[in-house]
Amino acid sequence: MRAAPQVLLVSHDASRTGAPAVATSFARWAARTGAAQIHVALLGGGPLTSTLRALGPTTVASRAEVELARAAGPRAHAPRLRRAARSFDRPPIVVANTLAAWPAAATVERRDALVCWVHELDRLADVLVAPDQRSALIAATDRFLAAGPAVARMLVERWGIAPARVATVPPLVEPPAPGAPRSERRVLGAGALVPRKGADLFVSVLASLDPPLTAEGAAWVGGPDDGAYATQVRSDLRRAGLDGRVHLVGPVPTLEPWWPADGVLLHPAREDPAPLVVAEAALRAVPVATWTTGGAADLLRDAGCAHLVAPAGDVVGLAERLARLLADADERRAVGRALADAAAPQLVDRAAPRTLAAIRGDR
Question: What is the pTM of this model?
Fold first, then answer.
């Protein structure tokens, strides 16, 4: 019998955002099934830290280590990562969960292979790993996991990585909780309250709705809600006359109470290669309107719902697609069913074995 692989999973933090949440789902599945032995090394903390510690060995960078890494670079994490690698009885597969963790993961010399699980697209990718750093990291990396087709295209077509070294894996999604409460709001937006996720564009689309947003209103869930960008979004709401109908909720531990009972997820991200929130909406049969800026569009096309994908940046076009959904209950139900079918392969128990095979390099 083939031994369970030993995996050192290096993550940039343990926040409740897409990539750390997907890694946590993978670690939970591995612990439950015994399919892999996983030691998690966090380069920063976050609310998922306690969950990961309950699943298995987990180390977290100290504040001093984080500050040193900011000043001196990823080598500051090397001593702790070396100790984590030595916790296995043989050299582990080292997996960098996101480009932010890639340089630090590459410092681990005692390894069976180095795998980079890429969750980012061009703009953010260039911020996290400068183009002049890439060549050496690409040469040191055995294989890449692309979180969706858009990421795979970036790695192959723009980074020049051989297709044989790139495996496309879907985000792992936990199944919906049965009987969870739903919201009466008609439109939900969700994600970190940062420009890339597009809360300002969420406001612009809602302001362009014809007919206008009803009294049931809308909500944007996610934070931080106390910075300059949040102030800008609140100002946009006031200028659009929507501040009484659109609620900025801030960060929450779970989206469950905010999923619309009979509404739509509006996903206006400027760049989002594999949005977990869209897959979660799909599995709850919540229809989605988006534009061509990443993985949400891929999922809608797979579901036969390309008519709900607007060109990137077309605020009026996205508002028209949203209005169509809000006006037609039969359309909402049909789109919800189609999305649920299309997203089913992303459920953890179906997607995690594929992810593990890609980590191992199985073909």
Answer: 0.93
145: part of which helix (H) or strand (E)?
A: strand 143-146
User: Both tokens of residue 242?
Assistant: 């929507």
Q: Which residues pair with 266 in a beta bridge?
A: 289
Domain spans in the chain, listed from the N-terminal domain onward? 6-172+349-360, 187-345
Tell me the CATH number for domain 6-172+349-360: 3.40.50.2000
Separation between Cα atoms, residue 243 and residue 284, nearest integer Å: 28
Which residues are within 8 A (CB) of 22 and not within 5 positions of it... i.e. 6 or more apart? 97, 119, 147, 171, 172, 276
List per-residue pLDDT tens for the chain, 363 residues long: 578 999 999 999 999 888 999 999 999 999 999 999 999 999 999 999 999 999 999 999 998 999 999 888 899 999 999 999 999 999 999 999 999 999 999 999 999 999 999 999 988 999 999 888 999 999 999 999 999 998 999 999 999 999 999 999 988 999 998 888 899 999 999 999 999 999 999 999 999 999 999 887 999 999 998 889 999 999 999 999 998 899 999 999 889 999 999 999 999 999 999 899 999 999 999 999 999 988 899 999 999 999 999 999 999 999 999 999 999 999 999 999 999 999 999 999 999 999 999 999 996
Distances (CA, A) of 78 to 73, 104, 132: 10, 7, 21
The CATH label, of 3.40.718.10, 3.40.50.150, 3.40.50.2000, 3.40.50.410, for the domain at 187-345 is 3.40.50.2000
Rounded CA-CA distance 288/240 in Å is 23
Omega before residue 57 within 30° of 0, cis: no
